[in-house]
Design brief:
With about 450 residues, the protein is an alpha+beta fold. It has 14 helices and 21 strands.
């Protein structure tokens, strides 16, 4: 059995080995605290914004690279691509780019600080995550990549080292330097990306679509699940031939405990032809969510299950990815067995409840007055009036339920857009109940 390690455990150079940057180093308005990491093209520092006092990850480029006679233009374009995204990509699973300055022979990018290291620390035997955690990470990355695509952006360099760990299974995709902006006038002529994770069409220089990032995400999942890359070779030429023509072994042949459903998901994402992969990211994500239910503990309500339950509601389906995640995190989630009282009449409370799955009956003085189905709200009277008040009815689960409870003081902290859509759901439920009551009275 392959050993697993909790997400966020030590193993990343970024998180483990900070290097002093020297006294009073300042770059633009940023006061450098220490070096976080150094790569082939530049250095990343922990820095403080001297205006706001907030901490950022400050990425700088080695000035010599811009002056390189052969690749200087390529490096500059790549850096400019990433800098151009400052303030444009706002998603809970994408590292935010806060500020950027690019000059003739230098430049820096101020990014959201993520201190949990990256997924490369969990892509080798002895440091693997649980299969369930990998499914959750894949689900969140699919949402982020779909969002980027809707904004006109392909990442083109998806790999474990470019997916940062915030906390638990909370991840953020970083390094959009190789991104291809569909709306840009710039035509990039140099194939970028890491060969092990490149799609067949990217290797062949064909026009790329979101299916190329989807392929790369499949490779990342494969490596996180097994600790092995799907293709390896002694030379770049041999590696390219394998990526173009060979089928990798199923992940379950390399690690016990991986169900066939997970094999099918990963291998579908890695199909040679783009049209043989998933049609859309939401299909990819839904399969990952279903797989997570298969491999996860029955009593755990995963992040993906919460997201899918909210998104299934017609009035909440209009919310952006960020807003759905806001509501998911604002709720207190629970599974409730059939026959359990969810709310008792005369008990005081101020919570608003959302029935994410299952069904319930509503009674008053033992008399049935209503039924509640999936994606409906209840407890709205006390919530609307504000403050704890006696409940007017009893709500009992008729089948096993998935329940989201929203406390007013927590809900007030989410964005106005998320609050508005939840209130639309509540109002629609009330309108439906009034309509049904009128029909009964007229019958």
């Amino acid at each position: 059995m392959t050993e697993t390690r909790p997400l966020g455990a030590k193993g990343s150079v970024v998180a483990e080995k900070p290097i002093d940057a020297g006294p009073e180093l300042r770059i633009g308005k940023y006061e450098v605290q220490r070096q976080l990491g150094k790569g082939a093209t530049g250095t990343v520092y922990l820095a403080t914004d001297s205006f706001s006092g907030g901490e950022v990850a400050l990425k700088t480029i080695d000035p010599a690279l811009f002056l390189d006679p052969e690749f200087g233009a390529e490096y500059r374009t790549q850096f400019l691509n990433e800098a151009s995204l400052a303030g444009k990509l706002r998603h809970p699973h994408i590292v935010g780019i806060l500020d950027a300055v690019v000059e003739e022979d230098s430049g820096y990018i101020a990014m959201e600080l993520v201190m949990g290291g990256d997924l490369a620390a969990h892509a080798s035997a002895g440091a693997l995550l649980s299969v369930g955690d990998v499914m959750q990470i894949g689900f969140k990355c699919c949402g982020a990549l779909d969002y980027a695509f809707q904004e006109g952006i392909f990442h083109r360099d998806i790999k474990p080292a470019n997916i940062m760990i915030a906390k638990g299974t909370e991840v953020k995709i970083a390094d959009f330097g190789a991104a291809f902006l569909r709306r840009s006038q710039t035509v990039q002529t140099v194939a970028m990306g890491s060969p092990y994770y490149m799609s067949p069409e990217q290797i062949e220089g064909a026009e790329l679509t979101y299916h190329s990032d989807m392929y790369s995400m499949g490779v990342v999942l494969y490596e996180l699940l097994t600790g092995h890359k799907p293709f390896s070779a002694g030379s770049l030429e041999m590696l390219v031939q394998k990526i173009l023509h060979q089928t990798p072994p199923a992940p379950s042949t390399l690690r016990a405990g991986i169900p066939p459903e997970v094999d099918a998901i990963v291998l579908k994402a890695m199909q040679k032809k783009p049209l043989d992969r998933y049609d859309y990211y939401d299909e990819f994500a839904l399969d990952l969510a279903r797989a997570a239910r298969l491999v996860g503990p029955a009593d755990v309500i995963s992040d993906s299950e919460q997201y899918v339950a909210l998104k299934r509601c017609e009035t909440l389906a209009e919310l952006s990815d960020s807003e759905v995640w806001e509501l998911a995190r604002a709720a207190r989630w629970s599974r409730v067995s059939a026959g359990t009282a969810l709310v008792n009449e005369n008990d005081e409370g101020d919570s608003l409840f959302f029935l994410a799955g299952g069904g319930a009956r509503v009674t008053r003085d033992g008399r049935l007055i209503n039924t509640i189905g999936e994606s409906e709200c209840f407890g709205e009277i006390a919530y609307i009036y504000g403050g704890a008040a006696p409940r007017h009815a009893t709500v009992v689960a008729t089948i096993d339920c998935l329940l989201a409870e929203f406390r007013p003081f927590v809900l007030m902290q989410v964005s106005s857009g998320a609050q508005l859509q939840l209130m639309r759901t509540l109002v629609r439920n009330l309108a439906d109940r009034l309509r049904d009551a009128n029909i009964k009275n007229l019958a």
